Amino acid sequence: MSDVGTVRAARDAFRARAQSATELCREALARIEAVNPRLNVFNTVVADHALARAQALDAEFDRWRDAPLAGVPVALKDNICTRGIRTTASSRMLEQYVPPYDATVVSRLDSAGAIMVGKTNCDEFAMGSSNESSAFGPARNPWDLDRIPGGTSGGSAAAVAARLVPLALGSDTGGSIRQPAALCGVVGLKPTYGRVSRFGLIAHASSLDQIGPITRTVQDAAIALEVLAGIDRADATSASEPVPQFSAALTGDVRGVRIGVPRALVDQGVDPEVGRALADALDTLKARGATLVDVELPHAKYAIPAYYLVSTAEASSNLARYDGVRYGFRAKNDERRTPSHEPLRAMYTQTRARGFGPEVKRRIMLGTYVLSAGYYDAYYLKAQQVRTLILRDYEEAFQGPEAVDAIAMPTSPTPAFEIGERVADPLQMYLADVFTVSANLAGLPAVSVPCGFTAGKLPIGLQFTGRPFDEASLLRIAEAYERDTAWSNEAPTL
Amino acid sequence: MLAFAMASALTREQVVAIAALANLDLDSLEIDLFTRQLGSILEYAEQVQRIDTTGVPPTASLVAHGAVDRADVLEASLDIADTLQNAPDADRTRLDGGFFKVPRVIG
Hints:
The complex is a heterodimer. By secondary structure, chain A is α/β, with parallel strands linked by helices. Helix content of chain A is 39%, strand content 12%. Chain A has helices at residues 7-15, 21-39, 47-59, 61-64, 104-111, 154-161, 178-184, 218-228, 263-266, 272-287, 303-318, 343-355, 358-371, 376-399, 426-431, 437-442, 471-483; strands at residues 42-45, 73-77, 115-120, 167-171, 187-190, 211-215, 258-261, 291-294, 406-410, 446-453, 459-466. By secondary structure, chain B is mainly alpha-helical. Among the domains of chain B are: 9-50, Glu-tRNAGln amidotransferase C subunit, N-terminal domain (Histone, subunit A, Orthogonal Bundle); 74-102, no CATH class. Chain B is 31% helix and 4% strand. Chain B is built from 3 helices and 2 strands; from the N terminus they run αααββ. In chain B, a hairpin with a 7-residue loop joins strand 1 and strand 2. At the A-B interface, helix 11, helix 12, helix 13, helix 14 and helix 15 of A face helix 1 and helix 2 of B.
């Protein structure tokens, strides 16, 4: 059975009538059927819906021929709302939830001719770093089925890595697109905050969340971002910045480009194989004409505490809506532990106790605490001030007298770890987000690209962080690097 | 290890109080677990308190252009049937299309 190719290859095949949309769709569905039982990357596959859509594209070939994603099978993280198709956020709370509307990105993919084939597994409500908090069991890493695919968009990254679909959408609150992309050996792009509408994304932390593409190549990410980006009147935080043709920026030319490396941050606590892969990648960029510059991000070491204080505060507020009244799970009377003279309140507290898993409860608890009277200033306000300092560090790096065009770091300090290895220690799990969370706190675009493998054949990711709304430069640097390496051509054996 | 050696930023009573604020009915094992885990996470997070932030404004959001107004024009919204479609309990017949139902509040 053939692997599903890239976005570019699928679109070109459709355009040239080398393959019909129906053939492209059947290929993806056949591969999903063959491989998904081992990977658990899909919560829902919508084969009939996808085939009907593909047939509609074929029936009106002339209308769709030039659409940017015509005939391209796409998977969506299961926290992106799809009208009439179950959207669970990998939670018992929303196990039966069928949204009455589409997220804006879903409408945009539709207009671009994409074929949505299913909804991917993720950490519950996009909270986690390993996909293990999913109520439906973890997705597995295609490179080693005993290891995590990363989180929270683990299903999306694993689906692309396993060649089930050429494009999957993820969401990234603290690294949830980039880290699983790195651990699965694919490309993951978190756009600038506001670049892509969040309308219809099940909210985790609203000042940090951003939707973005996971693909095999940087060019595919650029093509996808052209479709996804743009202002949306349904999301007041979406930006009116013009959307350039990102794929036209991929010239391979990085001569004179200045790439900052935060040595002090990178030198502590990185797996030696990850450190070597980063050093090799920097050499490759230098050989292409880029200039490497040391940068200081003095407050970056505080990004994890700041992130977990800000994001849990926002999450505790966002998840207050799950109370068993308007949608989602409701605990039945006979399931309620304690009889209460306040039946409505008992319904709320027991619905939430049974509907949410441990990681979500832990974060709601932490967020409620840091927002509560007496602790707000010491934790939440303080974290927001540290957020300002982190933002200023990046402004200094990107705008100061020694300005750089991008900052390079590993995406994850280690390759994929084993399923179960860190579940007992949530703090240990949080510390793995050291290189990713600051881009969310500062609202900056960042991309992870494959930069090699460990001796044990686990993928390693390289992350570039860029200026606000300058995804074009970011993608140009990432694609130039990709030209000199063939990492994305390697496929896991399944 | 002695119990008093387990310095914790949080007490069990505080965890119970937070759970009440968060509308979460935690069992006793969860209360013990969260007392320990949230305590160690908070201890770790306390390092932010060592940073001098005098005069530093907080960042709550990164919206590029501030709030955007739109004309106050009536627009279509979800219809009632669609809105009630996911309700755990609803009356879909009365009051011009129906309403959500919750457990009895008044005796």
